[in-house]
Write a sequence for this structure.
């Protein structure tokens, strides 16, 4: 079968790889019909995630048709159309029982932080991902969810990660009616978080980025304010000024370790790898939230230390909440929001490319070319 193949930082291509096998009676094989590239894949592509092995296949945002099931799979059947949450979760461990599906204790037994994730390095379990014609889906009674027949597949594929992550980002922010919410990052996650912030009753939503085309997009898509940090002397000062010097009620980091905007962070975090990614957006979030405010982090960082202003966290009495999204927990609610038209995820898809063009797709998304917001890969077997 055809699959994306990681060859080292900034080098990916499509190759022939073996068709995946059922390795456990609860596995399923899914024929992928759509697979997105995510900002999280860019951290892998840029070589920022430890133990990203040459030869692995990325892709944790996909939908498809069930092709085969193991003997103990009871919840889905061959030819079902399913969306597959990016978390690989056993459904039975102590963490899954608390609906912390992103922190499953069984699917990534070598680690004590994150659970298994499709196509996300051996740090996240070493599973091959869905930027391929077929993918093995472990614990198939837990993750895969039948797509309602009336749902557009483009909406469905964004329910595997983007919408749940954005929703959880807003939820972890503890947004109260009338709150001023500042979101760092106008990528797919930041854009969708701006939409979700309104659902939680925000009174003012501000998005910060440095890519004009994304700022223009989010202003229209999420009806919010959007500002370019390159045109400010200091984003923290800007946010303080615009909130009567109080600071924002809630700040959300939807950028993670690839952040721009501070030379020292960029050099130590992205070039020399002396810390686990550049923590620029997180700095700004901590320093511009009000005293007693909440910082919600969904931006992904590497698993070792980062240079962050922890003194300010203590002195301001800030609450920090963070996690990988727990997709299965929020999915039923989000399917309702999409079916009722309160959320329109497919509106962020700007590019649709054949899987064979994976190399161009990564280059375009990484370099933010052609006004790209969200690219979707279509495998050749998608329509057969
Ligand atoms: N926690 C989770 O479950 C989860 C799930 C999906 C994605 N993520 C993470 O969310 C983050 C965003 O993902 P995405 O797909 O939107 O990525 P993306 O790369 O498309 O978007 C990131 C945006 O941040 C902007 N940016 C860079 N530096 C900035 C700064 N200092 N301040 C403000 N904006 C800045 C970039 O210009 C870009 O538009 C990534 O770190 C990704 O790994 C987390
Ligand atoms: Zn993702
Ligand atoms: Zn579990």
């Amino acid at each position: 079968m055809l699959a994306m193949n990681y060859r080292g930082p900034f080098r990916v291509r499509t190759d022939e790889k073996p068709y995946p096998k059922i390795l456990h009676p609860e596995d399923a094989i899914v024929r992928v019909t759509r697979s997105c590239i995510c900002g999280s894949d860019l951290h892998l592509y840029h070589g920022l995630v430890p133990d990203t092995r040459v030869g692995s296949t990325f892709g944790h945002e996909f939908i498809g048709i069930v092709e085969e099931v193991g003997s103990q799979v009871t919840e889905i059947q061959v030819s079902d159309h399913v969306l597959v949450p990016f978390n690989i979760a056993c459904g039975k461990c102590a963490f899954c029982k608390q609906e912390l599906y992103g922190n499953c204790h069984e699917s990534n037994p070598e680690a004590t932080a994150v659970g298994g994730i499709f196509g996300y390095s051996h740090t996240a379990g070493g599973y091959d991902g869905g930027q391929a014609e077929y993918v093995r889906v472990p614990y198939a009674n837990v993750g895969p969810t039948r797509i309602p027949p009336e749902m557009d597949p483009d909406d469905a594929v964004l329910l595997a990660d983007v919408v749940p992550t954005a929703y959880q980002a807003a939820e972890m922010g503890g947004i109260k009616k009338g709150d001023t919410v500042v979101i760092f990052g106008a990528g797919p996650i930041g854009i969708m978080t701006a939409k979700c912030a309104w659902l939680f009753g925000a009174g003012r939503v501000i998005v910060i980025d440095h890519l004009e085309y994304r700022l223009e997009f989010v202003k229209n898509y999420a009806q919010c304010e959007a500002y370019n940090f390159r045109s400010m002397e200091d984003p923290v000062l800007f946010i303080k000024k615009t909130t009567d010097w109080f600071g924002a009620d809630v700040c959300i980091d939807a950028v993670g370790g690839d952040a721009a905007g501070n030379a020292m962070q960029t050099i130590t975090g992205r070039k020399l790898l002396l810390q686990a990614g550049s923590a620029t957006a997180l700095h700004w979030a901590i320093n511009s939230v009000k005293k007693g405010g909440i910082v919600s982090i969904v931006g992904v960082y590497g698993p070792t230390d980062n240079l962050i202003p922890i003194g300010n966290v203590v002195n301001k009495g800030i609450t920090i909440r963070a996690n990988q999204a727990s997709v299965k927990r929020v999915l039923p609610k989000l399917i309702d929001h999409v079916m009722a038209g309160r959320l329109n995820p497919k509106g962020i898809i700007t590019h649709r490319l054949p899987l064979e063009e994976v190399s161009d797709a990564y280059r375009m998304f990484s370099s933010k070319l052609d006004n790209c917001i969200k690219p979707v890969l279509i495998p050749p077997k998608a329509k057969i």
Q: What stands out?
A: Residues 38-40, 42-43, 161, 165, 184-190, 208-211, 214, 229, 254-256, 259-261, 280-281, 298-300, 324-325 surround nicotinamide-adenine-dinucleotide (ligand 1) (CB under 6 Å). Residues 327-339 form the longest helix (13 residues). DSSP finds twelve helices and 17 strands in the chain.
